[in-house]
Structure formats: structure tokens, C-alpha cells
Amino acid sequence: MPQSPFVMYDEEFKELTLIIEKLLREANSKCVYLVDKDGQLMSAVGETKDIDATSLASLTAGNIAATGGLAKVIGEKEFSILFHEGERDNIHISVVGQRVILVVIFDKRSSLGLVRLRVKKASEDLTKSIEKLLSRMQAGAAQENILKEITDDDIERLFH
């Protein structure tokens, strides 16, 4: 079942950004990105200026989708955590709340253990914020459906 795209409200955007800023500091990472599973960037903090965020977001979503296919082949639901180790930088990718992807890029100033520990706590906080956002989106959709039920004749009768 396809999921509806996120409608980001300012309050939730600020809340999500505060959570990933805290993660950035506590994990001693270079940058943190929050991406939806469709590959759309939701928020980014840290040393992001040298990274093409659009490419990173879409490639990360593709990576999650590809490993989801691998998981199904071996009988798993999905792999919720991925780790890529490079010469200088490492990427820790995790699925949060089954809707978003948390990407943490870190170097030798941090460690995988510290990142995993801090991501676990941040994921709990992000899940709560995402659930709040989804509730708000559903309430907005319900209100929109009510407005769609009003016909042109209803409007004419209202003003005449």
C-alpha cells in the first residue's frame, strides 16, 4: 500500500530538526539527514555544504528499497539498519517509524558504537514526532474531505 507524502508543518519541522541537531552533537558526527522513503529530504544539519543533499536523499531511499528486496529474498521483513564504511567517512542508515530514513555521516572523531547508541535514543524521539505529524496530516485530510463534499450548488444557495 503506497504511503501518502509528508506534509511538513513548521512546528514538526522544527521539532524534527532539534532532534537531529541533538543527535549530531551527541554522536559527534559530521552531519545528519532525515529523508522520507520516497527519497525527499526532510531536514539536514551539520557539515552539509559539500554534499549534494538531493542525490544523497534519493540514493539513500534507493539503498533502503534495494536492501528491502534482499531482505525479502532471505525471508526478512526489512533490514532496518545499514552501515557503510569508507576510508574517511562512514554512513549509518536506519529506518525510523517505518516512514523515514535517518542518515548519520561520521568520521574517526566518533565510533560506530557511539553512533548506534545515540541513534537508538534519537529514533525513539523521532518516532513520536513523526506519529504526531501523521496525526496532524490525517486531521488535515479529513477536513479537506469535508470541504470536497461542498458542491457549487451548496455555495450558490449559501450566497443567495
Can you tell me about this structure?
The chain is an alpha+beta fold and 160 residues long. The protein has a single domain, classed as Dynein light chain 2a, cytoplasmic (Beta-Lactamase, 2-Layer Sandwich). The protein is 52% helix and 19% strand. The protein contains 4 helices and 5 strands. A hairpin with a 4-residue loop joins strand 1 and strand 2. Helix 1 runs antiparallel to helix 3. The protein is elongated, with a radius of gyration of 19 Å. The relative contact order is 0.16. The mean pLDDT is 87.
Brief sketch in words of this structure:
This protein is 52% helix and 19% strand.
Distance between the termini: 44 Å
How many helices? 4
Residue fraction in strands = 15-25%
> Which term fits the overall shape?
elongated
CATH architectural grouping: 2-Layer Sandwich
Which class of secondary structure composition applies to the elements? alpha+beta
Q: What is the assigned CATH homologous superfamily? A: Dynein light chain 2a, cytoplasmic
What order do the SSEs take from the amino end to the carboxyl end, as H and E?
A: HEEHEEEHH
